[in-house]
Structures are given as structure tokens and as C-alpha cells.
Amino acid sequence: MKKLYLLLISMLLMGGANFVSASQIELEIGKIDPTPSGPGHTKEPVIVPYVWQEDHELEIDTPHDEYVLNIVSGTTIVYSTVVYSTVSMVVLPATLSGTYELQLIQGNLCFYGDIDL
């Protein structure tokens, strides 16, 4: 019975390996234009999006705001697209390889982190 139990557990762990192959991208927050715009700027907390990567696929937790997604190499934007609030999966071009900076821009906020493709 113990052998059957261990076999079952090991099969579950191997079968579940696909679920943990995606890695979360740690994002930091930056302001594009730090000057306040108008008298009514709020002090609401900033909600950092959760982004997971598996190969060239990015998954953004929903619901989320609309973002401009940039893939940046140095100071050059090598790929850019709009991620609408109804979209949770973004497939990046397979021609991209190497280490880049991922940017999610919303208003005057930029969420950024490193991404390996």
C-alpha cells in the first residue's frame, strides 16, 4: 500500500510540473512624469500587476487596466503592443531572444522588470 501511495504521489508531482513551469516576473514601479498634473491628484495605492512568463508567452492577472507593453533593449524599444483590459495572454515574437526589460505603461506609471527570452 505504501508503494502504491508513493507511486501516486510521484505521478501527481510529475504531472503537475507543467503548472509550475511559468515564472513570475518581479516588477518595480517608476513614474514617467513625476510632476503632479492638476490639483486633484489622488493618493490611492498603486496596484502592481502580476505577470507570469512561460517561454514567449506572458500572462497578466485579470482584471487589469489597459497597458502599453514594451520590450526594451538598452534604450531601444524592440517590440511594443497595447494590452487591453480584456486580454490576459500576450505572445511575444519568437525572433526575440536574450535579456530585455519588460515595461507595462499606464498613464504616468511604468511597471518594469527583467525578462529572459
Structure description:
The protein is mainly β and 117 residues long. The chain has a single domain, classed as Sandwich (Immunoglobulin-like), CATH 2.60.40.3080. Helix content is 12%, strand content 42%. The strands form two sheets. Strands 2-9-8-5-6 form a five-stranded antiparallel beta sheet, with no helix packed on it. The protein has a four-stranded antiparallel beta sheet with strand order 1-3-4-7, with no helix packed on it. A hairpin with a 2-residue loop joins β5 and β6.
Offer a quick outline of the entry:
About 10% of the residues lie in helices and about 40% in strands. It is mostly beta strands and about 120 residues long.
Domain module tally: 1
Runs with pLDDT <50, length 5+? Answer: 16-20
Please tell me what the overall shape is: globular
CATH third-tier fold name: Immunoglobulin-like
* CATH architecture tag: Sandwich
**Number of DSSP helices?**
1
Structural class: mainly beta
Report helical residue fraction. Answer: 10-25%
Distance between the termini: 45 Å
* DSSP strand content: 35-45%
Tell me the total number of β-strands.
Answer: 9
The mean pLDDT is 82
Which secondary structure elements does this structure contain, and how are they paired or packed?
Layout: H1 2-15, E1 23-25, E2 28-31, E3 51-54, E4 57-60, E5 67-73, E6 76-83, E7 89-91, E8 99-106, E9 109-116
Antiparallel strand pairs: 1-3, 2-9, 3-4, 4-7, 5-6, 5-8, 8-9
Features:
12% helix; 5-stranded antiparallel β-sheet; 4-stranded antiparallel β-sheet; 1 helix; 117 residues; Immunoglobulin-like; single chain; mainly beta
